[in-house]
Amino acid sequence: MKYVKLDNIEIPQIALGTWSWGTGINGGNKIFGNYTNENELKNIFDQASACGFTLWDTAAVYGMGASETILGHCIKDSNAIISTKFSPFAIQSRGAMKNSLDKSLLRLGISNVDIYWIHNPKNVEKWVNEIIPLMKSGKIKYAGVSNHNLEEIKLAASILEKSGLKLSAVQNHYSLLYRTSEETGILDWCKNNNVIFFAYMILEQGALTGKYSFDKPFNSNTRRGKAFPSKVLKKLEGLIATLGELGNKYNASISQIVIAWAIAKNTVPIIGVTKNSHIKDADSALNICLSADDIKEIEKAAKLTKISVKASWENVF
């Protein structure tokens, strides 16, 4: 396993995501078309742990608690590092974050969380100020913001700094098809300020794995099926071919090349895991070192697709 420094602790270079764990609103069935049962997911957790993957990312809204509950059953008696999130809504009373955190901790079966994220930028000042006492109480070890733009990130960091605390991490959508966090200076700001950047949807929910195509599309009733209909998958053929050629060069799968690209861009990629092959891809990607020319070739092919996949919730950019 390879590690990066998160303030005063080391974390794995790759985080494992549980967005697709559990069913229901925002659950795996609605987003991905997955119906993986808890016993299967426990086996995935055990295999990942055996490979040294101890950093797990979830959120209260994934399956509206289902993901946290399943993960909580899996992490008993483990050394898992847990990352979960509070999602601000337009109107919420004071104390909403504490209530949400307490419910998350109960579902996860833990007394404190390693990384706690403010999941969107609705009223940055309000929610950053609410996270401060929770950090000082010891319920939250490290604070992060997700789906925030650079101005909002800087504001969050400054509020925490005034209380003697630190913004430790940023988590945004980042992929070959959506590089806004790079283009707007967020990646550079994170690097210059010792803040870890977590990249989610780097595989674009499977569209950048080579496993789906115009002739083998996603289920059209899922979120990813609506984001990547057959006509969009058709436009990705050139990029997939380029990734496949590099896969042959490194004796790797297309997924492994994409993960290696995200690591090379100084991010901690979050890889959703529901199959043994997902663990293998993450593990193998750690040993791939892409050259500067490889990266240029990949990014050129991505640009030629002329596809940008901004999600509906990404109104911050």
Polypeptide structure, described:
An eight-stranded parallel beta barrel has the order 3-4-5-6-7-8-9-10, surrounded by five helices. Strands 1-2 form a two-stranded antiparallel ribbon. It is α/β, with parallel strands linked by helices. It is globular, with a radius of gyration of 19 Å. It has helices at residues 28-31, 38-50, 66-74, 96-108, 124-136, 150-162, 180-183, 186-192, 223-227, 230-235, 237-250, 254-264, 276-285, 292-304; strands at residues 3-6, 9-12, 15-17, 55-57, 81-86, 113-118, 140-146, 167-173, 196-200, 268-272. The chain contains 14 helices and ten strands. β4 (55-57), α3 (66-74) and β5 form a beta-alpha-beta unit. α5 (124-136) crosses α6.
Question: What can be said about this structure in brief?
Answer:
The chain is an alpha/beta fold. The chain has 14 helices and 10 strands.
Give the SSE string.
EEEHHEHEHEHEHEHHEHHHHEHH
Number of beta-strand segments? 10
| Portion in helices | 40-55%
Structural class: alpha/beta
Give the terminus-to-terminus CA distance: 34 Å
| Residue runs with pLDDT of under 50 for 5 or more positions | none
DSSP helical segment count:
14
Approximately how much beta-strand content do the residues carry? Answer: 15-25%
Shape: globular
Radius of gyration: 19 Å
Which strand order does the major sheet show? 3-4-5-6-7-8-9-10
Q: What is the arithmetic mean of pLDDT?
A: 92
Q: Biggest sheet, in brief? A: 8 strands, parallel, barrel
